């Protein structure tokens, strides 16, 4: 769609994805700054590698979302490639969050880890 003087207006999907991108950036910053990592590592130091791997994955997920957004902005329609790219990203994000949740559960349900 073109606006005044030929400027393009973002689609509703592009706007929604940009909103998601803002919230995701805030979410990742919170996790990286003072999220689950310190609490998990205080309780279960042996999970250090997993904590670092999950935190490192944030950049990959953010870049993949940016690629999906750019694809949508270029296509201006939800073609099959865009739908697949978005579905792939959503699957990765769900898996990532699931692994983070499992990590926290493992750390706090670990009897030998309890310092009590």
Question: What is the structure about, briefly put?
Answer:
The chain is mostly helical and 116 residues long. It has helices at 12-34, 36-43, 48-75, 80-108.
Summary tags:
116 residues, single chain
The unreliable regions are: 1-7
Percentage beta strand:
under 5%
Mean pLDDT: 85
Extended strand count = 0
Globular, elongated, flat, extended or rod-shaped: what is the shape? elongated
Radius of gyration: 19 Å
Distance between the termini: 62 Å
Fraction of residues in helices? over 70%
Structure description:
The protein has 116 residues and is mainly α. 76% of the residues lie in helices and 0% in strands. The protein has one domain (12-109). The chain contains four helices and no strands. α3 packs antiparallel against α4. It is elongated, with a radius of gyration of 19 Å. 11% of the residues are buried.
Topology, element by element:
Layout (H helix, E strand, L loop, with lengths): L11 H23 L1 H8 L4 H28 L4 H29 L8
Helix pairs in contact: 1-3, 2-4, 3-4
């Amino acid at each position: 769609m073109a606006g005044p003087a030929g400027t393009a207006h973002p689609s509703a999907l592009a706007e929604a994805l940009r909103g998601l991108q803002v919230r995701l950036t805030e979410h990742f910053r919170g996790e990286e700054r003072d999220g689950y990592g310190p609490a998990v590592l205080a309780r279960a130091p042996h999970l250090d590698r997993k904590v670092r791997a999950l935190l490192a994955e944030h950049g990959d997920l953010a870049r993949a979302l940016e690629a999906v957004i750019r694809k949508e902005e270029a296509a201006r329609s939800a073609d099959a490639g865009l739908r697949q790219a978005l579905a792939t990203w959503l699957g990765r994000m769900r898996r990532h969050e699931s692994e983070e949740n499992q990590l926290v559960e493992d750390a706090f349900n670990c009897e030998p880890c309890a310092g009590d």
